[in-house]
Design a protein that fits this description.
outer membrane lipoprotein receptor (LolB), chain A, alpha+beta, 18% helix
């Protein structure tokens, strides 16, 4: 936009300069001798902007693609633990829906442990929980609902087990090692670096939103008309978006629960990455029960206790 404005101003200046040359002057117009001035042939050298991280300067995130690629590169080469939470609240503070995901992912092999919890008024008081575990050879799922735990092996429509590689993204709802979520997130805001902090010897730059450029990207199947945004993130020198917190106001537009549509709600997203390089995938305590049940033709209810939630 700034470049377009500059081009426009130059064009207008040339137009008005030409108009001045056409103004009638008459014989009484004094003549003036103009001394030619040497025109510089080299463009002035701009002062280089210091990079704090790939795509990040003191002026904020200036290249979402460089930041996204760096973020994905860091996570793609190490084990890590991820926590994601999405909470939607009515204006009186009651939780409409809370969705939490805790995941531990190995560096290379498709080994992982993922726990998903859902709660809130939209579930009418029924809290659901699932835990997905893979040792790189097979996947087991434990599902807790209304006091019962059932077990299964994820299968496609033909009855065949789903390939291990695609399952983490399917259950997490997003590929955490892809740059795309960072492209989308930081494409919504204009940001500035507002502070820096040190954790475990690593400097982290705190970035805050100063303007919203694409609010339409934050609409979902549950809410519409996002507004009143607050966004902050911590970015490492390597480009890892270690954590972020996004809050905004919206209007309920949940097609699966239309009776509450039109209500004003607050939406909170938090994402955090920890234990980089120090995350291990351990066998869950329900492993033996799961093996016993998925080996039978029809899975049966095996327990009345909730699966252990991942740390």
């Amino acid at each position: 936009m700034k470049r377009s404005i500059s081009v426009l101003l130059v064009a207008l200046a040339l137009v008005f300069a030409g108009c001045n040359g056409l103004l009638p002057g008459g014989d009484s117009t004094p003549t003036e001798t103009v001394t030619p001035v040497a025109v510089p042939t080299d463009k002035p050298t701009s002062t280089p902007v210091s990079q704090l991280a790939p795509g990040l300067t003191r002026q904020g995130v200036t290249d979402v693609f460089a930041l996204g690629e760096a973020h994905a590169s860091v996570l793609g080469g190490t084990s890590f633990t991820a926590h994601r939470e999405n909470t939607i609240r009515y204006s009186n503070g009651t939780v409409y829906r809370r969705f939490e995901i805790d995941g531990q992912l190995a560096a290379t092999e498709p080994r992982y442990s993922i726990t998903l919890n859902q709660s809130g008024a939209v579930l009418k008081g029924h809290r659901t929980s699932r835990q997905i575990w893979s040792d790189g050879e097979r996947v087991l799922v434990a599902k807790y609902l209304v006091g019962n735990t059932s077990y299964r092996v994820p299968r496609d429509l033909t009855g065949e087990p789903i390939p291990l590689d695609g399952l983490p993204q399917r259950f997490l709802g997003v590929d955490l090692t892809s740059p795309q979520p960072i492209y989308t997130l930081f494409g919504v805001f204009e940001t500035r670096v507002v502070d820096e902090t040190t954790r475990n010897g690593t400097t982290l730059y705190e970035v805050a939103a100063v303007n919203v450029t694409r609010p339409d990207r934050l609409g979902t199947a549950v809410v519409s008309n996002p507004r009143n945004f607050s966004f902050r993130a911590l970015i490492s020198p390597e480009g890892l978006v270690r954590e972020y917190r996004l809050r905004y106001t919206a209007t309920l537009a949940d097609q699966r629960n239309p009776s509450t549509n039109g209500e004003t709600v607050s939406v909170l997203y938090t994402v955090r990455y920890t234990r980089l390089g120090n995350t291990t995938i351990e066998r869950p305590p329900w492993y033996d029960d799961a093996i016993a049940n998925v080996s039978t033709p029809t899975p049966t209810t095996a327990s009345t206790t909730t699966p252990t939630t991942a740390a």
